[in-house]
Amino acid sequence: MLYLVREWRRLKEDSKIAAVRRRRILEAARSLMLREGFRAATMEGIAKEASIAKATLYAYFPDKENIFKSVAEAMAQEMVEGFRAELHAEASPVKRVIAALQAKHRYIFETVRASAQADELFAAKNQLAKKAFAEADQQIVKNLAELLETEALGAWHPHETASLLFYATLGVANHAATNGEMEEGVRRLVQAILGV
Q1: For the chain, how many structural domains are there in total?
Q2: How far is CA 79 from CA 1, 109, 153, 155, 173, in A?
Q3: d(CA 64, CA 41)
Q4: Is residue 74 located within the same domain as residue 52?
Q5: Which end of the chain, C or N, has fewer beta carbons within 10 A?
Q6: Residues 154 and 121 in one domain
């Protein structure tokens, strides 16, 4: 019986170490890919950036495409979490909608769009991780619709208004040259659509 307890503790400790190592790999890959781009990032470069052996890296991920997909999934989740934090903050409902949409677009602006490799990274995202970001976008629209319905905001149905807000601000964000320009455009657009 004592052997089983020791073995269980060892396995539990091993899983903690594996989780820390996996997180370190993903952080290193994210940093390297944002700096050098998807094509220039290699398994060897990711291993070096993570300060691990290349064989260790392959024990966690079979190739850089799987690493990229995992990095993108984590980034999509971070984006949603930042959006939700602003959506549930203490402020008026309209200010929360504005701040949440600004946070969503700011996250992309400050991470991927700030990279010299932005076009390449967006192309890789569309090829390898489109589903993760589509699901994140659906979560954001759903959360917006719930707030609009709860607060009785918007002239149309809450889901239609949420979709309009999301996709219209996406257009503003994609054409903004600076973060400030994006934030001002999002603010003005949300106020116009919600009639404030």
Answers
A1: 2
A2: 46, 11, 24, 27, 14
A3: 8
A4: no
A5: N
A6: yes
- Tell me: do 88 and 166 sit in the same domain: yes
What digits encode the pLDDT tens for the residues 48-102?
Answer: 999 999 999 999 999 999 999 999 999 999 999 999 999 999 999 999 999 999 9
Which of 62, 89, 107 corresponds to the end of one domain? Answer: 62
Residues 81 and 159 in one domain: yes
Burial of residue 6 (number of CB atoms within 10 Å: 0-12, 13-18, 19+)? exposed
DSSP alpha helix (H) spans, the chain: 2-36, 43-50, 54-60, 64-87, 93-110, 118-128, 130-151, 158-175, 179-194
The helix-helix angle for 64-87 and 2-36 (nearest 10°) equals: 90
Which pLDDT tens digit goes with each residue over 142-170?
A: 999 999 998 877 656 899 999 999 999 99
| Residue 67 token pair | 């690493």
